[in-house]
## 1
Amino acid sequence: MRILLTISLWLFASGAFALDAATVNKLGFGDGDEKIAAIAALVAEGDPAAAALLQAATDGELQTAGKLVLIVKGEEAVNAATGAKVTPLPEEREDVILNNRVRRELGGAMAALKLISPDRATRLAAAKELTGNADQAMLPLIKKALASETDAGVKQLLELTQATLELKTGTKESRIAAVRTLGLSTNPNTKMLLLGILEKSKEGGYAEPDEDIRIEAQKSLKALEGRLAWGERAGVLFTSVSLGSILLLAALGLAITYGLMGVINMAHGELIMVGAYTTYVVQNLFKRTDFFDWYLLAAVPASFIAAAAVGMALERLVIRWLYGRPLETLLATWGISLMLIQTVRTIFGAQNVQVENPAFMSGGMELLTGVVMPWSRIVIICFAGAVLVGMWLLLTKTRLGLFVRAVTQNRPMASCVGVPTARVDTWAFGLGSGIAGLAGCALSQIGNVGPDLGQSYIVDSFMVVVLGGVGQLAGTVYAALGLGFANKLLEAWQGAVLAKIAVLVFIIFFIQKRPQGMFALRGRALDA
Amino acid sequence: MTGGISRRLYGPRGWAILALFCVAVFGVMPVLNLAVPADSPFHVSAYWVTLLGKIMCYAIVAVAMDLVWGYAGILSLGHGLFFALGGYSFGMYLMRQIGSDGQYRQPMPDFMVFLDWKEFPWQWWNSDSFWWCAMLVIVVPGLLAYVFGYFAFRSRVKGVYLSIITQALTFAAMLLFFRNATGFGGNNGFTDFRRILDIPIATPQTRMALFAITGATLIGTLLLARWLTTSRFGRVLAAIRDAEQRVMFCGYDTVHYKLFVWTLSAVICGVAGALYVPQVGIINPGEMSPANSIEIAIWVAVGGRGTLIGPLIGAGLVNGAKSYFTQAFPEYWLFALGLIFILVTLFLPQGVMGFLGKKK
Amino acid sequence: MSISATTATGEGGSLGRVAREGLDSTHGVVLYMEDISVSFDGFKALNKLSLSIDIGELRCVIGPNGAGKTTMMDVITGKTRPDEGTVYFGQTIDLTRLSEAQISTAGIGRKFQKPTIFEHHSVFENLELSMKADKRVRKTLFSSLSSAQKDSIAETLKTIRLNDSADRVAGLLSHGQKQWLEIGMLLMQEPRLLLLDEPVAGMSDDETERTGELFLSLAGKHSLVVVEHDMAFVEKIARKITVLHEGGVLAEGSMSEVQNDPKVIEVYLGR
Amino acid sequence: MKRRMFVKQLALSAAVAAIGLGSTALYAQAKTIKVGVLHSLSGTMAISETVLKDVTLMAIEEINAKGGVLGMKLEPVVVDPASNWPLFAEKARQLLTQDKVAVTFGCWTSVSRKSVLPVFEELNGLLFYPVQYEGEELSKNVFYTGAAPNQQAIPAVEYLMSKEGGAAKRWVLLGTDYVYPRTTNKILRAFLKSKGVADKDIDEKYTPFGHSDYQTIVADVKKFAAGGKTAVVSTINGDSNVPFYKELGNQGLKATDVPVVAFSVGEEELRGVDTKPLVGHLAAWNYFMSQKNPTNDAWKKQWAAYAKKMKLAGADKPLTNDPMEAAWIGIHMWKQAVEKAKTTDVDKVIAAMAGQTFKAPSGITSKMDEKNHHLHKAVYIGEVQANGQFNVVWQTKGPVKAEPWSPFIAGNDKKKGEPDGKTIITK
């Protein structure tokens, strides 16, 4: 309790304190081993000042100037050892460099210290951090924390860690208890621990001489493996749906411009790219404000509008003149795509640009230890669903949708009954392009944003639309999800390269079976 | 205007151009390149010989493409694959001809030495034989095209569906060839050729010989294509393009017609690929990328579909423009190229040939 | 419901023979259809349709839109495969097993509702391509026209009154001329059975008249099935009429029989 | 004048019956030395190569401002091979025979280099290749200013094996399926085996070009890492890195648990990534922008000013990286060699290149090996920081000599470390 109190105290006021100067210097100037020793010493010291120092190191606020070790916060610096204010700020300062190993130790140390934080979330995070990262020295701390812990979730994690640590030591009873606890784990690391118990030694005996423990371990292992297998299945399911949703987003716009309107739109990928770059521009505008996390709210409509505008302009200037000559639209739109790529390259440079995830889309939801569903992907799946529903509503429930369907089904007839076909074409193409822009906005969250962005999606998009059946929205959806699953299942089995090849070959064979795609209507219309 | 399909090819002017072309390829170029001293302003350098040789290879492909697209109405977005397969088939022979002059000074191609392969994989069987590889140049693309075409045409896959699956085919092949394990040098492909039929490859004479052979092949392809398209076979093809159903109800088994021209076109592409590789000095899976195949279609469209001579001009124009623009305005050349494609489709729907025809 | 006699088809060994051999019309029947059903996504286009055509017969088929006329032709020519039922050409040729090209070679010619000719070919070439000949790839590569073949084309040109337009590009012909050209193409195939889908649509009265005469002159040598909406035309040429409705045969008989059939009256004049 | 001639030539080629009249150049101004710049400005490689063109032009501008070379100004000839390998060969031939350049700076990726190599050898040209590569090649006509595997890959792995690097026991070798990753991984596998790592503790994984879905890969890495302390060695090619790193960050695979060391990810590649979740992941290079020394400071300042002046894209955040440094060293060393040889004659310049030194922005004095055409380079391991820069956490003690023929590949022990066919010039 004392430590906790002082940590929180320190956050408000840096009280007077004094640490062992030698330890602090080791942390500041020493090599890896010395730094780690210093960290261990500071944890053991349990001093609030030590906690503060460790926190500063974690936050990257530790600097050295000459022989001094400083904690620098903005323009203020205090002597890390004495806590005295250092003014003026020395000019020549260097960051104290922590490598992964030190950072790992530091993480463990901080976690151990945070185990008694009053905030449940902090404790939970700390306990989680410790599950894979605790060493024997922390056992007393963990035990102490367990004694006072009230939250079941934190308690479970701590027990698990304790079990991990006690597996090798302690009485037979405590070890059996530990093995049992491990059986409740969802952490793949635990599997290795249990396997270690069951391992046969070279002489033919077992690494673990006690048979009871081995039997318990066997049971725990089975339970654990079952759980892990489920986790893995859930993981594959999620990745498949996620890939499917991305393919769907990429293909939906094309399902309109190509599927409904018959324009072989090779510039579709570049419309996606326009959406992604619009997102980038909007993000940059928001960077200077306090609402950065909300930039997507503006970027979504902006990317729709930007791509739709480009699409409508293209329709008016070029594609308009090519209706009824589908293969020539291929040529012209290919030319357009080259020009769009080069335009972007000229304006934004050939390099990728950075699109940051808003904070709420970073990280993920942990299903089991190791099976993480990233928020960005969850959001994209939902987004794809929303776009799909929106598009469906637009096409079936609005006048524009009615017009679009009328024009695509029978242009002369539609024109006769007074549908402004030319304008409908423009709007429909704009809609398809806008949806491509939305795809770009979504893709910017998980992939790179560069001039070549579109090129990597164009082939896939066409595959999806054609596989689903041209002009069949439902087919597009099924094809996208189907390809997502096929790709991911095969990848798990044969690796990414062969999976991709196999999927392409599958498409070739599938089209032989259903030459009009998955959802083509069998009709009697003359095609001669 | 009289005449249907058959009477529109090669007026006297066409034949005159062809004759002139023969003179240029077999007479003027060799003399200017080999006999005229290098410091003379009339000397044609090796750069021009290889560049024009390369463009002629592309032109052969364009004519082959015109046979299937312009005449039979099958838009292939995978012709680059057949081209590359021909190139790879012949490339195997060229790799074997390097002998022990590679980086490792060992009798096997460098990438195999590096991968620790002690024996040639099965694909390389007999690859040190010129005739075997020359046969592969024809058989491999031909067989693939035949099998693929047989199933696709029999299932009546057509239009954009066919285009897309040809694209899938070439894309899949590209990924396959990128793998080292496939046994064709992965991404680096084949390069560093030294000899052909034991004659050093980097001499002006060899280069000129390759150039002349390419020219002869181009002329041969043109004549063959002309013969095909003016025969009743050609009229059936064009009929299939315009009204396939009617052709079937006339009693023609259209599958075989399409299959024949499709396979022939693939074989011609393979030959072009085989001629291309020793001249440019490299073959790599990039040749199979979908973009390359789309470009082939673009040459044909720029020149004018269904005219045979048009695609040749298209291939020359587009590639000439590419070679020129990439050094004249390296930063902006894509604008120019893209603009050409758009303008041609908008204003010259029949391609350059349509434009020339109109002017007449 | 139907009166047509099609019981003679199931004769033992002839079933399932994929025939390229000549037409066996020993029973005087050129085409049998029995219990043909075709459905498109739940919609029954043909529903147990049975029909037979005699050698040399000229049969008119009428029926409201959606009655299944075109689908019936699709089934005969192999464009659509029936879900159930049998179609025999003569006694031995099972049409459901042949491709369009094989059916055509066997001796069935078809004219489409919308004239389908080769628009970029000349009239002469159109006829040349449809001429009865060996239509395998190898032959077409090296073939040239014999004088007999040229004569035959010239004769057909005369029949369809396009001898002045032999070198014209077919796409430039008038609609009626295109119809005639297509009929000419059928004649060049020398078929045993001609299927004609609305042959006089878009023709002038004069042209219609001549078409009728042509058909009547063809009957006897060939069997003809004419689908037509133009009742005046039908009346002029018809000897026997079949009325289709909702995928089945509603009535069959002479013009007057059909006109007086209460079911037909109900369908045509309606509730 | 040049343009007009090319228009003429274009017209000829377009007619196909081209008779290349007067294609031999007769340039009036002999007062310049032509220098070829052969980097893709369009196509897939433009992402990486464009800056190399810019930094080369900056070097040329600087050299010209200081009076040029041998009293003559350098005249850059920039062409765009458009990420198309046959076009690389064509452009190389054009530079050498039409423009008659004295030297060419260019290429990125081995396939582009291998496509132009026969041309340079045939015409005895001179190429400076500024990017790290898999080795297994030596040509007298090429100077390799990027790293060989022993100057990048092996030190990185050694670091990760050390206690300081986290003492990794299991290894995921992850790459794009092409030659550089395959070769590097082969060398690494042999190296790891020599250090006693068992095959079951090495997992090699490849993804196709342009792969953008790394969900399964990252999940697999996690699974593999459950079996013991794991490090990932990534040779993922340029474009796929952003989706890979975004996936890493989002799936919460932290550097403290499973560090990823990359050989083709530098400051420029991370430009497109939010690096906050990636802190601690590593890269091995011979130069990092964050290095603090006067040479680097001056160079960075120069680059920032140049980028601003030329209004280059990304000038608001000018970045330098390892290949840029290698390109920079290359052109300056060439200049020194020309001055030493007092001619631009290729054979003499090659001879004069041996042992050249140049004060490199990385802080060391780079030296061109007397024999093997590679630079001696110090190797730095950097950890990604939140600001997209790298923090050097480890470095070799002094420069390392390149081993283009890796000793971990069978048969290479017999190779000599010098290209054949060099002219011996004695003074």
Note: The longest strand of chain C covers residues 29-40.
## 2
Amino acid sequence: MSGGTLLQVEDLDIFYGASQILFGVALSLGEGETLALLGRNGAGKTTTMKAIAGLAAARRGRIALRGVDLAGRRPHMIARAGLGFVPEDRQIFPDHTVEDNLLIGHKKGPEGQDAWPLRRIYDVFPLLAPLRQRSAGRLSGGEQQLLAIARTLMGNPVVLLLDEPSEGLAPIVVQRIGALLRSLRATGTTILIAEQNMHFCLGLADRATVIDKGRIVHTAPIAALQADEGVRKRYLAL
Amino acid sequence: MVRRAALADVLGGAAAFAVLAAVPLLIGGKAAPDFVIRCAAYGLFATSLNLLVGYGGMISFGHGMFFGLGAYAFGLLMQRTALSIPAAFALTILIAAAVATVIGAICVRLKEIYFAFVTLAFQMLIHSLIISWVGLTGGDQGLRGGIPRPVFLGVDLANRIQLYLACGAALVIGLVLMHRIVASQFGYTLRMTRDNAERAGYLGVDVVRVRLIAFVLAAVFACVGGVVMSLFVSGAYPDFADWTVSGDGMFINMLGGINVFLGPMLGTVILLLLNDTVTRLTEHDGIVLGVVILFFAIGLRKGLLDFVLDRIAERRATAVASPERG
Amino acid sequence: MATTSRSAIGRRAALAALGAGATALAAPRIVRAQDKVVRIGMPTILSGRVAQLGNSSRNAVLMEVERINAAGGLAGRRIEMVIRDSKGQPQEAARIARELINTEGCDLLLDGEASSGGFAVNEVARDLGVLCVHTNSETSSLTADPKLRLPNAFRVCRQGVHDSIVGGSYAAGVAKAKGLKRWATCAPDYAYGRDTTAQYVEYLKHFMPDVEIITQAWPKLFQPDYTENITKLLQAKPQALYTCLWAGDLTAFVDQASIYALLSQMELFAVNMADYTTLTAVKHLPPGIHSGNRYIKTFPKTPQNAAWADAYRARYKEYPTTWSWQNSAAMHFFEAAAKRANSVDGKKLAEVLPGLTVEVPFGTDGTITMRGEDHTIINYAIGWGTTIPTEPYVPDMHPGDWKQIVELEAEWKKANHYT
Amino acid sequence: MDLAALAACIANPGCVVTQATSGFIVGMLLFLVAAGLTLIFGVLKVINFAHGAFYMLGAYFAFALYQSSGSFALALIGGAAGSGVAALACERLLISRVYGGSVLMQLLVCYALVLILDDVVRMVWGNDFLSMGMPAQFQVPPLFVAGGVVPPFYLFLIAVALAIAVALGLALARTRLGKVVRAAAHNPQMVSALGINTGLIYGLVFALGGALAGMAGALAAPVRSLTPGMGFSILIDSFIVTVIGGMGSVAGALVGALLIGFIRAFGSVGFPLFTDGIMYMVMVAVLVTRPTGLFGRNAG
């Protein structure tokens, strides 16, 4: 954690209608760090991710990127500030070609950086290169997930927010995506990854934080978590 | 329970009718009865539209066609046949129900906005039929020569006070019946298809059939509104079946509120008062009406009665919640 | 000025009603106390497509009211007008007419509605038994059909069948001179358009039996674009075209027909062209269009007529319309009837109106008569002529022959089982 | 019914040319209005019942500019631009407040806009109908093609409308903004999560729709009479067009508009008294068999 805290979430309360979904969620991410947000189905992972991306309105709380509070800003402002969100169901634009999907995602980073030109994308995602003119709706699930990540990278994010990237994919594809994320991490990308699948995060995340029923219940280095059977059984159903 | 609720409705209806009947005695002049008759016509129409919109989740852009149908069918039967008023009235209802069954069978299969479109298309079709079929309908000039009102069972609708009482009775009976429908098992099923048609389907509800029945019932009450209107103006005009009437119906519902049974009735009174006073004060009534609409649509974001009840509910909720916090 | 007094009254009444707490419900009949006043209620069209005509009706009425009041009023009572906008909707017209009598305490109705609104107001007059003078409904059946006719309703307005007889006879003259045998018609598809066209064709054929109607176009009322009708007419290659389109629809039609050079290919008989609103609105008025007189200050060519038009123009900065003269004439009828009956009671006025002749600038011989048998006016100025692009627009009007009109009208009534 | 006349017309090339031009005129002007209506629905999910008002504003702006400058080109541009700006203002101030709300609220806001704009036009330009007159450069005799009549002004009008149709199609398909607009129609939340201001996109689309309608009004101003409320019948026709073509589909709007144009052109020959009825029947038939319209995405 060389560069200190990059993303800091504090006291996040979220309501859907009258019912409260998140209760004072807090987490923090250092520069270049990868943090796994683990929890069961329905524990509040996706809501937390959406809240950070500005897609779910928080009633209370602070979401600071490099000390600047982004809570309450509109999603596009948050994206421009450097939070790049990859949603759980990928949400690619099915009628557009692969390349158009990427182009729609293109923007410069908050400091004007343009580190992800198309060429580099196709280098890092060699599978997408031959598909560039194909309709995104006709890609396989794994290809769509790659496209979704690539599209967000086109926007030169400071922090990559990944919501369940392994969900619903074949093991071989999951492995491939894991490898890709590790290579991204190696280049210094800061990643917050929400996952049900703890094994997917092993060797990828530095630390893990566990959420249950809308509350953060445990935070530890991921290796320690793997060793802690009690926490795993209680919160992760493994 | 059900029986007691029905009794309450009937008693409430009787009380309402008693008040209406007293109006001409309490307030001199002939203006009040005229106003109440128009309220009856539009109120029946708007409340019936709310059966579809509020309770059935079916946004119809073409409900005015049944208002027009009622006025024309009744007017034509009275002008061209020797039927008594009750017989013509009953036959008008049958005609409206039959037409609504055919049109509804086509419309209710479509969802959401497409239902709205297809009802609008049917309304335009019927409106252009009325305009084109001059021999029967008189075309754009409407049914001329007045609607004859032979005395039946000692009731003389040519007499203004008796007409007033008859229209008031039609309104009260119509509202009570509609409220019974809403409170019935059928009403419950209808709301279920509104909230989650798929789930209702799993539970063995024939969604299309439920919607069709609601469509026909709504058409019948709209048609009664049309009959009242035709008696008020002693004629029928293509405007009755035009989009403006459907639009007024929507507007009334939004003014009064769609989540409370009497919302449309309140909306009717507001709209008619608004219309009558604004047109009297200015020729630029468009701007005034437009601003009022914007106030409801953007300011309150709901009808008046909905707004008031929500506020009351909110206040109660905070009243309950605050001791806990304290 | 009468305008302000009118609106002041309207506002005062409304405010009083609001003050009573329940607006229309409890509006008191406030003016009854002032016995020196007679209130005339006037539903007319002040918004929407026909508003211009409704406005011109109101203008003419207010001008006459000022004159009559200055001269002592109706049978000694000052006239107060209560004028309301029906937006052209018949049910609104009916509602307003009722309200004018029941709430505003009006004694008489001056119905300034177009045809369907006129029928609606007629039913109100039947129901309430109040004296009603229709000023703008040209549909012949309103007074010709005994089922519609009322003892307490009168019409001071040109009538479709009169127009058609004069138009047919004039057209037959032109057709004979120029050899126009193949005719087409183009009329808005609503009652006025259909009836007027049918009657015109009937009388054209009456005066010139070998005329043939080869095609008929029926655009919708207020249709924005007539291109498909124009091209259809061009295809048929008629020698002459009759149209009863009016106001904005007529100017749009002429503009659109011009770019197809339609007018160079056939003679155009447009009954509603010679109205100042239309004549002045067309940017490039083609010469040689045949038209009936709606209102034109040079027909009849009398100093009285010109003076009235100039006075109107000086006051309202525009020329009067055909609705203006009709409403002006109606006020003259009220005035003359009140004088003869020495009363403003509706029943007494209804007794003296039949057969009453008044002096007005719009009569062929300086007078117009309310025909007793069917409560509609005769002897008003009616004629046809051809246009030139600038004032006086229609230099030579050929007046219709009222003897002929009345004879043929009687036959028409018989054919329609009205007598 | 006059089917013999219709058959005779179809057999006669002159008649086909003349009526087809007429179908194109009516159709292309409708397309300009309907394209905006369908785009706005596609992206904003709002049925803009106030769309006819922007057609009206376009015509009145063009009228005023032509009166003061004498330049028809300026009138066209000004009509379109003025309507676009007015549309943007309406969207930012009012319509944007009911996004995602109930259809009824959106409907009411649009209805209120119609009432207000009609009244504003009445206050500024008066109740009377206005006629702009044909610009001098188009006061020329018509062309004769294969025995049919084709006025040069209408050729110009069709050409301008076609050019706009092509430009619109290309812009939506090829430019980044066009791609973003289409993406926003499909999934606005994702688009905003990618850092794109969807509010801006909505405003742009609404303004573009208003400008297209204004352009139609300006193009039609020389041959149609101007009255407050003139947008209404255009709105109904273009509404039918978009329903037939498929709400949200620009290609559908083009096909639907031409279909309505041709039904009018040939219907006036074959069944002059029931062309409207035919249009409504086509609309019902399309809705019943394919509710999302001929070119609409199948919502299932």
Note: Chain B has one domain: 2-241.
